[in-house]
Design brief:
The structure holds 2 protein chains of 2 kinds. By secondary structure, chain A is α+β, with helices and mostly antiparallel strands. Helix content of chain A is 18%, strand content 33%. Chain A has 8 helices and 23 strands. Classes of the chains: A alpha+beta, B alpha/beta.
Chain lengths: 432, 303
C-alpha cells in the first residue's frame, strides 16, 4: 500500500464506515507489537506517545523501541509486563475508522475475549510461527465462533524468525483450517506477518513472494461487513418513551430505541410484544427530522397510529416475523465471576435487550471444555471462565431470538442481585 | 442521518447512534442523572447528543459545572448562553467556595485540577446524583482506554481498574447500591478528529478560544500559556503576542494554547489530522507529571 493512502489526512468523514475488531493472542505472540505497528503505520501514534515509549524502552534496556509499551496502559501492567483487561484503541484510514478491543490472551481471561468479541465485526488471532497452534489459539477460534463474530483473521507472526519459510506457513494454515472447519466460522483469512518489522501489515512484504493475499491493513479496510447486519427481521426494543411536558409540543408520544435488526418504514404494520397488539408506524423521527426508513444501528423514535400501552422492555416487530415470547431459555453461558460459581438453583437478574427480569438456573446440561470441545455432562457448576449449556426460567417473558440469528435479541447478561456484578453472558440457543 | 446509498451508515452516524443509545439507557434506568459540563468541546458535543436523544422533549436532566474558579471568560459566557437557550437547570460546584469554607486546601502550586475531585464528590453526595455523564474519550489517555462506558464508582467515587464490570453487546449494567454511582462516558469511542468532524457536521457553536486568535502568551517548556490573572510572568520571562488556539479547555492556570492559524472548523480539522502530538500532551501540564498521572487521579474519584 502506498504512503499516500496511509496519510492520515482529513478524510471525507461522511464516506468512512466503522469496523470493530477484537484481537487475541498469547502473552508472547506479539499482539501488542502488532497493534502498535498498526497504529504506527497508520500514523495514529503521536510524537509525544512515541517519545514516552522510547524513553520507557530505554529505561528497561530494550534493544529496540518496544511498541508493545504503547498499548499497555496501567501501571500494574507496565510493571508486570502483562495486560489485565480489555483496552480499546482507535485508528483510521481514509476508508474506515477502526475500533480495536484489545483483549489479553492468558488462560484466565476468557471473560475478556468474550466481552471484546461480543461487539466485534472481525476477530484477529495471532500465533507464533515457531510454536504453531497452541491450546489458546483453538480456544480463541472457538470463542470467535461461539460469539458469532462474522470474520476471522489468523496472523501467523514472527515469520522472520522462521526465515519466511512457506512450509511453516502452510502447515499452520492447514492445521488451523481443519480445526476451524469443526466450528461455525463464516470467513477466514490467514496472513503471514512480522509485526516487529512491519511485514504484510500495512503493505505486502517482499519477504513473502509466495503469499498472494492482502496485507493485514488492506484486508481490514476492504473486508465486506455491510451484509453482516440482519436487515430481514424487524426488531425494535423500546428503550424509553418520549412524552414532552411542554406547551409547544402536545400529544407527542414516541418510542425511542436503537434498531436491532430489520428495516422499519412509515406505514408498516407492526406487532407489539408482549401485548400482542398491532398498529401501523405513523412516523420515524430523529432530531434532524423524520426519516423514510430506519435500520441498524440507527437510534430513532417511532410513533404509532394507535394508542397502545407500550413501555421500556417491549419490542416492536412485524406480525409474521416475531421473536419468541419465552420464559424457558436454553443458552450457552460464559461464567464471569471469580467470587462464586454458577449453580443449578441459583437466582440472578437477567438483562436482555432493554428488558430486565429475574431468572433461576433450572439445569446445567453440560460444561464445555473450550480446548477440546469435550462435553462434561456430570458437571455441577460453572467456574470463572467456564462455558456450559444452561436452562433458565425467567419471571417474565423475554422477547428472544436464537443468538445465531440475531446477536442483539439473542444475547443476555446475568447479574448477581446482591453484589450487582455482571456474572455471566448468555447466547440463546432456544427460547419457548 | 446522511444516506448516500441504502442502509449505509457512516462512522459518525454509528458513533452518534451509540451515544444516543447510552444516554437513553441512563435516563431509563437511573433516578438522578446529571451531565458534567465544563464548556470544553467534548462536553459541548455531549450536550448536543443529549438534545438529540430526547427531542422533541427537553434534555431531562441538569448539567453540572465543577468550577475551578480558573476560567476563561469566553467559556463561562458560552456556558450561560447555552444553558439559557436549552432551558437547562445548571448546578455549579465551586472549588473557590470549597477553599473558602475549608473543605479543600489550595495546593502550594496553586493548580486546581486535583482538588476538583473532593468538590465533585461532595456535590454528588449533596444532590444524590446516581449517574454522571462525562465527556472523556478513550483515545485521550492510556488509563481511559481501559475504562468502561459505564464506570462503576464506590461510595468514595473511586475507580478500581481491576474490578470492572464486563460490558457485552449493548447491555450496560448500571446497578448500584445507595451512595454508589456510575460515571457514564457516551463519547468513549470517539476520537479528537471524530469530535471535530461532528462539530462541523452539526454546526455546533464553540467558545471562540477554540479558534485561532491573537493572544499574549508566555512559552514554558514548549507550551504557550496565556498571560492573565492566573498565569503571571516569572523573573526572566517575556511575553509575546502569538496567533494561537486552544485544543482543550481546562483549568486556565494549567491549560496551554497551541500556535495555530486555524480560524474555522475546516481548518481545525486539517490541523488536527496533521498534528503529531496528542491533545493532552500538547496542552495539559497536569498530565506530564508522571506516566500514571491520570490512572492515579481516577482512582481518587476524578472524572
Amino acid at each position: 500500500m502506498s504512503q499516500a493512502v496511509l496519510e492520515n489526512e482529513a478524510a471525507p468523514a461522511a464516506r468512512m464506515d466503522l469496523l470493530r475488531f477484537a484481537t487475541a493472542g498469547s502473552v508472547d505472540d506479539g499482539k501488542s507489537t502488532l497493534i502498535g505497528r498498526l497504529l504506527y503505520d497508520t500514523k495514529t501514534i503521536f510524537a509525544d506517545q512515541l517519545e514516552a515509549v522510547e524513553a520507557a524502552s530505554a529505561s528497561r534496556g530494550d534493544e529496540y523501541t518496544n511498541l508493545a509499551l504503547l498499548t499497555d496502559g496501567l501501571r500494574a501492567e507496565r510493571e508486570q509486563g502483562i495486560t489485565i483487561d480489555v483496552a480499546y484503541r482507535y485508528f483510521a484510514t481514509p476508508r474506515r475508522k477502526f475500533i480495536i478491543a484489545d483483549t489479553p490472551g492468558h488462560i484466565q481471561y476468557t471473560r475478556n475475549m468474550v466481552t471484546g468479541a461480543s461487539t466485534a465485526d472481525l476477530a484477529l488471532i495471532l500465533v507464533d510461527a515457531r510454536k504453531g497452534l497452541v491450546e489458546q489459539s483453538r480456544r480463541h477460534a472457538f470463542l470467535t465462533s461461539l460469539l458469532r463474530v462474522p470474520h476471522l483473521v489468523l496472523c501467523i507472526n514472527k515469520m522472520d524468525l522462521v526465515d519466511w519459510d512457506k512450509a511453516v506457513y502452510d502447515r499452520i494454515a492447514d492445521e488451523f483450517t481443519s480445526f476451524a472447519a469443526k466450528l461455525e466460522i463464516g470467513d477466514l483469512t490467514i496472513i503471514p506477518v512480522s509485526a516487529l518489522n512491519g511485514d504484510n501489515i500495512a503493505s505486502r512484504s517482499e519477504n513473502s513472494p509466495w503469499y498472494d493475499g492482502p496485507s493485514l491493513l488492506h484486508h481490514l479496510e476492504h473486508v465486506h461487513i455491510a451484509s453482516d447486519r440482519n436487515l430481514v427481521d424487524v426488531r425494535f426494543p423500546v428503550q424509553y418513551v418520549i412524552r414532552p411536558q411542554s406547551t409547544t409540543v402536545t400529544d407527542y408520544r414516541g418510542y425511542a430505541g436503537q434498531v436491532a435488526s430489520g428495516v422499519l418504514k412509515p406505514g408498516d404494520e407492526v406487532l407489539v410484544l408482549p401485548s400482542g397488539m398491532t398498529s401501523t408506524i405513523a412516523g420515524i423521527d430523529t432530531a434532524d427530522g423524520p426519516v423514510d426508513e430506519a435500520f441498524p444501528p440507527m437510534s430513532v423514535t417511532v410513533r404509532l397510529n394507535d394508542e397502545i400501552d407500550i413501555s421500556r422492555g417491549d419490542l416492536i416487530c412485524r406480525p409474521h416475523n416475531a421473536p419468541a415470547v419465552a420464559q424457558d431459555i436454553e443458552a450457552m453461558v460464559c461464567w464471569m465471576d471469580e467470587t462464586a460459581p454458577l449453580r443449578v438453583g441459583g437466582k440472578y437478574a437477567i438483562k436482555h435487550t432493554t428488558r430486565t427480569a429475574r431468572t433461576v438456573i433450572r439445569g446445567l446440561q453440560y460444561r464445555l471444555d473450550v480446548n477440546t470441545l469435550h462435553r462434561d455432562e456430570q458437571a455441577g457448576e460453572l467456574q470463572l471462565n467456564e462455558i456450559g449449556r444452561v436452562r433458565l426460567r425467567t419471571t417474565v417473558p423475554l422477547l428472544a431470538d436464537e443468538y445465531r440469528r440475531n446477536r442483539t435479541t439473542g444475547g443476555f447478561i446475568l447479574i448477581d442481585e446482591s453484589t450487582n456484578r455482571t456474572v455471566g453472558a448468555g447466547m440463546i440457543i432456544e427460547a419457548q | 442521518m446522511s444516506q448516500t446509498k441504502p442502509y449505509r451508515v457512516s462512522h459518525l452516524d454509528a458513533l452518534e447512534a451509540e451515544s444516543i443509545f447510552v444516554m437513553r439507557e441512563v435516563m431509563a434506568e437511573f433516578e438522578r442523572p446529571v451531565l458534567l459540563f465544563s464548556g470544553g468541546k467534548d462536553s459541548i458535543v455531549m450536550l448536543r447528543l443529549a438534545e438529540k436523544a430526547f427531542a422533541p422533549a427537553r434534555i431531562p436532566f441538569p448539567v453540572m459545572h465543577i468550577d475551578t474558579g480558573h476560567n476563561f471568560p469566553e467559556v463561562l459566557e458560552y456556558r450561560d448562553s447555552r444553558v439559557a437557550t436549552l432551558g437547562l437547570n445548571l448546578v455549579v460546584a465551586s472549588v473557590q467556595e470549597a477553599i473558602d469554607s475549608g473543605h479543600v486546601r489550595e495546593l502550594p502550586d496553586g493548580t486546581r485540577n486535583r482538588i476538583q475531585t473532593p468538590v465533585l464528590l461532595a456535590a454528588v453526595e449533596k444532590y444524590r446524583f446516581d449517574a454522571l455523564f462525562g465527556g472523556a474519550r478513550r483515545d485521550e489517555e492510556k488509563a481511559r482506554a481501559k475504562e468502561r462506558m459505564f464506570s462503576f464508582r464506590d461510595e468514595f467515587g473511586q475507580w478500581d481498574p481491576k474490578n470492572q464490570r464486563p460490558e457485552l453487546w449493548g447491555l450496560y449494567n448500571g446497578r448500584h447500591h445507595p451512595g454508589e454511582s456510575i460515571r457514564v462516558f457516551p463519547l468513549s469511542n470517539w476520537t479528537e478528529l471524530d469530535i471535530w468532524h461532528y462539530i462541523a457536521k452539526e454546526q455546533v457553536p464553540l467558545p471562540s478560544i477554540y479558534y485561532a486568535h491573537d493572544r499574549e502568551v508566555v512559552e514554558r517548556g514548549g507550551m504557550f500559556y496565556a498571560v492573565n490573572e492566573f498565569i503571571r510572568l516569572k523573573d526572566g520571562e517575556t511575553s509575546e503576542v502569538r496567533r494561537v488556539r486552544y485544543r482543550t479547555v481546562g483549568d486556565a492556570s494549567q491549560t496551554a494554547a497551541v500556535l495555530s492559524e486555524a480560524d474555522t472548523v475546516d481548518k481545525v480539522i486539517d490541523e488536527v489530522a496533521a498534528t503529531r502530538i496528542t491533545e493532552r500532551g500538547a496542552t495539559r501540564g497536569d498530565d506530564k507529571v508522571s506516566e500514571a498521572a491520570m490512572e492515579d487521579r481516577k482512582r481518587e474519584g476524578y472524572f
